[in-house]
Amino acid sequence: MNAGLRRSAVEFLIVSSLQLGVTPVVKYTALSIFVERFLPSIKNNNRSLRKKHGDNWLLQPLRQCNLQLLALVSVWVSSKIHDTRPLSVQSLKSLGDVAIKEQHYTTRDFLEAEVVLLQHLQVLDFEIGASNVAYVFLEDFLIRLRKLARVGDLVKLEACMDIMDVLYETEETSVLYNSPDFLAAAILVASYVITVPKQEHEFPLLSWADIPSFIKRARTIYPDLSTKWAKL
Predict the structure, then answer these.
(1) How many other C-beta atoms can be found within 10 angstroms of the C-beta atom of residue 47?
(2) What pTM, to 2 d.p., does this model score?
(3) From start to end of the chain, where are the E strands?
(4) What is the pLDDT of residues 191-212, one digit of tens each?
């Protein structure tokens, strides 16, 4: 799988989550399932899975439209985990009919894609849940920060989510994903240095950091985010 194909599928998942109106935890659990678990399994071309289930038409050959279908199914599975009233397959199909240009998928195709997704996760012994989703840790850390100091109110959750989206799109979450709580902490600090006014950077929990150089680097890596949140 080339980087362009992967990034296009991840961006499709992010945009689709917005269009479906799912909650952030559903979106980021779907990203965790799709990006951190499912994509590596097909990238590694798992032999035991192919031996047991054979080559499925959704993955052989690997096409952009099929990855988009599997991205939607990841959102569906995540919604089943978190929502008391999960997304319906009809709502996913309606979006797919409009957003997926290369292929028209039936309801049966969505059900088959769910089986393919779950087979990959189960064969690789991945838990299908949200216990290791970075967003869950991020919410908890932000709540603790706001209880600890008023400066926590200046850190925007929206900025944290924007940074997390960029990390998923550029495949940089994989470097830190073995420790999702560390990834969440890193995102919180990055959001802090981007969104909190410069005069407030004396917050004691960050006294160990070289804040000026950190801000400079953050603005270099994420210029669009820096511009966006500098206006707040």
Answers:
(1) 8
(2) 0.80
(3) none
(4) 888 887 765 555 555 544 444 5
